[in-house]
Design goal:
Shape: elongated
CATH topology of the largest domain: Rossmann fold
Number of helices: 10
Structural class: alpha/beta
Helix content: 25-40%
CATH class of the largest domain: Alpha Beta
Strand order of the largest sheet: 6-7-8-3-9-10
Radius of gyration: 22 Å
CATH superfamily of the largest domain: P-loop containing nucleotide triphosphate hydrolases
Amino acid sequence: MTIATMTNVSKRYPGIDRPALDDLNLSISPGSIVVLVGANGSGKTTAMEILSGLRAADSGTVVINGKKVVPGGLHRYDIGVQLQEGGLPQRLKVKEAVRSVSALYQDPGPVDSILRQLGLTDRMNQMVDRLSGGWQRRLDIALACVGRPQLLILDEPSSGLDPMARAELWEFLRSLRSRGTAVLASTHDLTEAEAFADRLLLLHRGKLLLDGTVPEVLASAGGAWRIRLTEAGDRTSHFFRDRGEHPLRQGENISVVGERQHLERLAQDIDLERSAGGLTYSDLLSGPIRLEDVYAYAAYLTSTASPAQGPS
């Protein structure tokens, strides 16, 4: 069962060679937290704007709760949306903004509980335009929840929040699962995505690279361990390739992914080669593979499989 689907969705912007979205397919199940990750310019915001009906796709189909998504369509009653550029009424108090939005719904959600969980109770008499960016973000999210949406679409919801506030936000979003609310949230913070997602969507240059649970996505790189050499010299890539490895260079750093025992033996060989003067690098870092490693490998493989198509 799905609450939302995007099928073969593509979008181009004038003057840009590469499509913002390129044949994107995704589905979202009720009660799930789906996190869309990718670098700036990967297409995250465009995907969310099209899913919410705020922007039309060039091609493809978008459906929410059985309703085709079109600008101003009936799907609006099933979603709550928070975008990076919020549309909060600046000259109202927080309580007035909450009251105004609640009045739009015949059966608004548990407003007091929502405000308490997001830490807004003590700020009800504060003017919206006097709130910091992080507090405005919390208010945006609270207002998106007032209409009891079946799907919450949140673009960079934790932007501007300190680490404790981020954790509180994600705990709040998790609490919505008990009533079947699905969440699609975007972030460029891969550590955050790895910690809180039920399912991950990795987007790169408008294409969906990977789609799965956190363990499934981590396993896709071909190993559970990685070593990284920082400030690695030019000979390092040849050293790895001569041993059948597939190194990934990111600036001055080089990484290799594989199984732990194999890479621990390889690390010993690296140390010996360095002692003999054959390799230069600053540090050797070894540990479990992280989402940032998987994303980097998937993006690298995609870029080497076909020519680059314009700016990132």
